[in-house]
Design a protein that fits this description.
The protein is built from ten helices and six strands, in the order ββαααααααβαβααββ. It is mostly helical and about 220 residues long.
Length: about 220
C-alpha cells in the first residue's frame, strides 16, 4: 500500500491512503485558522482566535473519541466529551511523546491539563480567562516590561498567545496522525474498522467547502 507524504508543522509524516479524508479535513481547518489569525491578530480579536482553536481541539477530541470507542453515535460522543477531553489532552499534548511540550519548559511547568480545560471553559462559556492566565496577540518576549510587571504580581502567571496555540495544536495533530499511522501499520484490519467510524463522523458533521461559490455546506 502506497503512503501519502505531507508536512503538517515542521515534521514530515507519512500516512496511509485510509487517512486521506481525515488529513484533508484537518488541513482545511488549519488553513482557515491561519487565515483568520494572520488577518485578525490584535487585542480586539485574541479571544475569538483562541475560541476558534479550542473549537478545533474539540473536533480533534471528537474524532479521537470516535476512533477509540468505535462509535459515531452523536449522543455517546456528546456524553463523554468532558472525560475524553482530559484523556485526549493527556494522550497527545501533556505527554513526553509530544516534542513541542517537551521543548517548552515554561508551559510544562505552569500549565496542566486542568488549567488548559479551565481556560477553554472560561473562554467558550463566559468569554473570560482564569486569573493566572493572560492572552496576548503577540508574545511578552517583545514586551519585557509587561512580562516583568506580571511576574511581579504573580510568578505563576502564564502568557498565552496565538502562536503558542498554533504550535501546540499542530503538535497535537502531528502526534494524533502518527498514532493512527502506527495503528494502521501494526494491525491493518483493526485500524480500518476503527477509522471508519471517524470517517462517518466527518461525513455526517464535517462542513464541505464549495470553491466555485465560496461557501461551506
Amino acid at each position: 500500500m502506497n503512503n501519502y507524504s505531507f508536512e503538517y508543522s515542521s515534521e514530515h509524516i507519512k500516512i496511509s491512503p485510509a487517512l486521506k479524508q481525515v488529513f484533508k479535513v484537518f488541513s482545511d481547518i488549519d488553513n482557515e485558522l491561519n487565515i483568520q489569525i494572520s488577518n485578525n491578530n490584535s487585542v480586539g480579536t485574541v479571544r475569538i482566535n483562541f475560541i476558534a482553536y479550542f473549537s478545533y481541539l474539540e473536533f480533534l477530541r471528537c474524532c479521537w473519541t470516535s476512533y477509540d470507542l468505535e462509535t459515531y453515535n452523536e449522543t455517546t460522543l456528546r456524553k463523554c466529551k468532558d472525560k475524553y477531553m482530559y484523556k485526549f489532552l493527556n494522550e497527545f499534548l501533556f505527554t513526553k511523546e509530544n516534542n513541542w511540550y517537551n521543548s517548552n519548559s515554561e508551559f510544562k511547568r505552569k500549565i496542566k491539563s486542568k488549567d488548559f480545560v479551565l481556560l477553554r471553559n472560561c473562554l467558550v462559556h463566559f468569554f473570560s480567562m482564569p486569573e493566572y492566565i493572560i492572552l496576548l496577540p503577540g508574545s511578552t518576549e517583545s514586551h519585557p516590561d509587561l512580562k516583568k510587571y506580571y511576574n511581579k504580581i504573580n510568578p505563576n502567571i502564564y502568557d498565552f498567545n496565538c502562536n503558542t496555540m498554533k504550535e501546540l495544536t499542530s503538535s497535537i495533530v502531528d502526534l494524533f496522525l502518527k498514532k493512527l499511522s502506527s495503528d494502521q501499520k501494526n494491525n491493518r484490519n483493526r485500524f480500518q474498522r476503527k477509522i471508519s467510524f471517524v470517517d462517518k463522523v466527518i461525513a455526517k458533521h464535517g462542513a464541505r467547502s464549495v470553491k466555485n461559490c465560496g461557501c461551506l455546506l
